[in-house]
Amino acid sequence: MAEQSLTLAPQKAEADEKVIRPVQSYWGVVWQRLRSDWITMAALALLLFMVTISLGAPWIGEHVLGFSPTATNLRQRNDPPTWAAAAWPQFQAFTLSCQTSAHCDWSQWGSITSAAVEGLSTCLTAELGGCHWMGTDDAGRDVLTRGVYGGRISLRIGLWVAGVSMTLGVLMGLISGYYATTFIDDIVNAIIMTLGSIPLLFLLIILSRIFQPGPEGLAILIGLFGWMGLSRLIRGQIFSVRERDYVIASRAIGTPAWGIMFKHILPNVSS
Fold first, then answer.
1. Does the pLDDT of residue 173 top 60, yes or no?
2. Across residues 143-162, what is the average pLDDT?
3. CB neighbours of residue 72 within 10 Å
4. For residues 85 and 136, is the Cβ–Cβ distance under 8 A?
5. What's the chain's average pLDDT?
6. N or C, which end of the chain has less CB nearby within 10 Å?
7. Rounded CA gap, 48 and 62, in Å?
8. What values do phi and psi take at 34, rounded to 5?
9. What is the C-alpha separation between 32 and 44, in angstroms, rounded?
10. Cα distance between residue 106 and residue 110, in whole Å
11. How far apart, in whole angstroms, are the C-alpha atoms of residue 160 and residue 52?
């Protein structure tokens, strides 16, 4: 009897642990899987770094680099990076030797590296606006400053395109998949086939000439014609979900179609 009680005690403790253990939500499981993938976390950290740099472009250009993206200086047209100015002629001679002969003259690489290191120390101690880290363009403007400012436009366009195309793709895919084999599905498929048959590049050129949109307007136009692939993907995944027991039960208790699509179907196909 004593042995039986001893064997039951660990089983009871394990059962209590299972009961006490909190149940993770769907997004909690997603976040846990993301944290376990170091490549995804590294990409997320890089994305956050790029967003931070782009949002702080005015402050970085004024207080860190010391240049304006529109300030020109024709005396410094197409200059190499300031820290590499002394090593630039040697580097050009090295690349020329690689192009004209089968073997590169690697004996020059030591002097090139030492000159570049000396230039880096000079750049780090220079005054504000005294160093072009990536050189200048054909109008004498600082390339790094213009790149930091240009990142703001690139990220803004990317967010607009992704937001518009994802919203339309998910919405149309939900409608088409939920009402499959009905006239609503036929209408959505007809829209997809019609938009997919139009050459996107020529359409964007024509619309941009007519409406002359800014970066946001151009991004919205791209998003309006870029949701068809996501819509077909969502529609295909809904076929395996819409006849599940919880969806049928939701219909039986009178849950509206929009509630079923967004509360029960979309979370199960969002992966």
1. yes
2. 89
3. 14
4. no
5. 83
6. N
7. 22
8. -65, -40
9. 14
10. 8
11. 18
CA distance 209 to 108: 52
> Nearest to residue 69, comparing CAs of 142, 156, 151, 152?
142
Query: 262: phi > 0 → left, psi -120 to 50 → alpha, else beta; which?
Result: alpha
Q: What is the pLDDT of residues 53-109, one digit of tens each?
A: 988 988 998 888 888 888 888 888 888 888 888 888 888 888 887 877 767 777 778
Task: Retrieve residue 242's tokens.
Answer: 């819409």
Are 230 and 170 contacting, i.e. CB atoms less than 8 angstroms apart?
yes
Place of tokens 């300031």: 82
Distance CA 71, CA 139 (A): 9
Query: Nearest 5°: CA angle at 14, between 11 and 20?
Result: 140
Nearest to 154 by CA among 240, 73, 219: 219
> Quick one: how far is CA 12 from the chain centroid?
49
d(CA 177, CA 74) in angstroms, rounded, equals 60
Output the six-digit token pair for 257: 């179609």
| Token representation of residue 131 | 């160093």
Residue written as token pair 């009961």: 19
- Look-up of token digits 């993206």: 69
- How far is it, in rounded angstroms, from Cα 91 to Cα 58? 33
Quick one: angle between helices 228-238 and 183-196, nearest 10?
150
